[in-house]
Amino acid sequence: MNNFDFYNPTHIVFGQDRFAELDTLIPADAKVMITYGGESAKKYGTVDKAREALKGREIVEFGGIEPNPHFETLAKAADIAKAENIDFLLAVGGGSVMDGTKFIALAAKDDSGKYQNILFNGFEPVPATEALPLGCIATLPATGSEMNMAGVITYNEQKYPFMSPLTFPKFSVLDPDLTKTLPKEQIANGVADAFIHVIEQYLTQPVNAKVQDRIGEGVLKTLIEDGPVTYADNDDLDARKNFMWSATTALCGSIGAGVPQDWSTHMIGHEMTASFGIAHGRTLAIILPNVLRERKDKKHAKLVQYAERVWDITEGTDDEKINQAINKTEAFFNDLDIFTNLTHYGIDDEGIDRIVNNMEKMGLTALSETGDLTLDIVRKILVATK
Amino acid sequence: MNNFDFYNPTHIVFGQDRFAELDTLIPADAKVMITYGGESAKKYGTVDKAREALKGREIVEFGGIEPNPHFETLAKAADIAKAENIDFLLAVGGGSVMDGTKFIALAAKDDSGKYQNILFNGFEPVPATEALPLGCIATLPATGSEMNMAGVITYNEQKYPFMSPLTFPKFSVLDPDLTKTLPKEQIANGVADAFIHVIEQYLTQPVNAKVQDRIGEGVLKTLIEDGPVTYADNDDLDARKNFMWSATTALCGSIGAGVPQDWSTHMIGHEMTASFGIAHGRTLAIILPNVLRERKDKKHAKLVQYAERVWDITEGTDDEKINQAINKTEAFFNDLDIFTNLTHYGIDDEGIDRIVNNMEKMGLTALSETGDLTLDIVRKILVATK
């Protein structure tokens, strides 16, 4: 395996009935901004329960953080946080709210007058030295944002990833009961998102990192088993817990430590979300099968391992195993009612041009763990996905 | 799965040639005490390399921390740390040095005049509010101390565990090359120690914690594959890396999150070390097979899972699978030249009495995840191990 750094100081508070502990997790004298998205955080009482647990503290609410949160919305929140002298941010929601709150945390301590500069560091850490501390009440198992330092923000109709060790949540409360009111579609997208977070770190080139590989395979198997159960049955608490912890484990750093990472599917998916508004997890599920088919030779050894260990395919030649594994992966998404063809989403040849052209504008011209997935190959993948 | 908290803020710096980074990991103005054990840390140049990397800082050395480190030795180190106004502790060594340095970190900020009080909290965190910060250069993959908050100290000829969130190492440098000078016996003990750390968290009662189970199984399989390779072949760097990362992963908290934990084998093993000076990892390997045989019914479901998933035993009845898995576990230790009978270590009936009596004195009368492993059962296990 390659040299690596692993650092993840987020305190996870996992389980039912943990709300009251917010009182000990946030300093008693902190003025808190509770951030959230749409109506559900209010409607289902989550924001109120948080207020109740934080009794005695001054609270400011900032709602309306949209999916794929917009720079303008978050800039406004940061301005309010500054004006109100906020000490602590509490994100109540899914990946968009958590990612957005990480951005607010950095922007609230940025006096450059150009919050957008936070976004232009690619996969390098933001060169900030200060951020507001933040905590999360995670309501949607999907992005893993509750236990990592990264976020993705929409700016000028493009999605920009950013990261900073300053934006690790101080804590994240993961209460499986909070996910019970989610629309089914979001469960499906969350399963796909978590699954592909593992895949992008695992399905690359072998570097004999056995522990990392096996953690990845374990999370994939758990998602295959308990993702569909959670999707189908709202009352299976065991499955819901395993799905929730899988999504967090998928992107907390342990699977990607010391191994090559791909992230092509994410880069293509981000553009599909930015241009066509398709939910993030769904874009990944649409794209992944043909990314794997296209990169079969590059990823040969790991694909065989994936087929054997994750899908228990033991018969046939290597190529047959690989094809079966990719087909099973696609069927897994389809069984979650995720269509994996572009036509279903109204993306035609012109749409494909738009995706490829926008990726070019973003400088995303040499993707994958080997840096040789060009835009011509991206186009080929998209055409195959029509 | 059960509710749980997971928190582990240690920064892991894994890989070859990372020594120079010590300079950025420890504050530039810190006065540092480098702690180490016997001669090897000096002889093989590790202490000197650390000094070189920390150039410009005032350094105090404290060597001579013995295996199963003694209270008196560590109290002396804490007194020196106070007198010298040390700001940062750097442990260079294996579990004993790292555990001992955690104790020094707490004692150096303890003005009660009774450092031993640090030891009397059982598995509850030490009620300290301050500790010196510490970092580790881990030279022996085994205890996992490099990435957790716990330690074990010898006081009055008994082994006392202690833990505090204040004693998570700020960082741990894990350089596989540093382990190449270890005596073979210590590699074998380290493999057994790491293996049984997983077992004590994994082989209990099922609570449907799929991610945790699969991480545990992944670490066990890796130890089964790469432990013996590291033992036999000093030059297989890949295996050595996997062994090293397995040992750290085994006890960093991810396997034990939200599941019942046993630790009986450790409690019996500690007494064997205290009374007979047998190395820690070795005591665990001696005891474990008969703990499992004795607790076959209690642990039935998990033992079947262990047999099938870790040892790939698919034929036979459940009981046959369990027996095979336990026998394979014992053979695994034996193949590392660890004898698993008490007679080999000169422990006779009188020795067994001594172990049981000392455990009684320590109040260790109701062990295991179900709290019903009595001293009568401990005796039975020891007699079966004669």
From TrEMBL, chains A, B:
Its cofactor is Fe cation. GO terms for molecular function: alcohol dehydrogenase (NADP+) activity; butanol dehydrogenase (NAD+) activity; metal ion binding; methylglyoxal reductase (NADPH) (acetol producing) activity. Residues 9-176 form the Alcohol dehydrogenase iron-type/glycerol dehydrogenase GldA domain. SUPFAM superfamilies: Dehydroquinate synthase-like. It holds the Pfam family ADH_Fe_C. Keywords: Oxidoreductase. The keyword tRNA processing does not apply. PROSITE patterns: ADH_IRON_1. Residues 188-358 form the Fe-containing alcohol dehydrogenase-like C-terminal domain. InterPro entries: ADH_Fe/GldA (IPR001670), ADH_Fe_C (IPR056798), ADH_Fe_CS (IPR018211), BDH-like (IPR044731). CDD domains: BDH. It comes from the Bacteria. GO terms for cellular component: cytosol. The keyword Amino-acid biosynthesis does not apply. Transmembrane segments: none annotated. Belongs to the iron-containing alcohol dehydrogenase family. This is NADH-dependent alcohol dehydrogenase. It comes from Leucothrix pacifica.
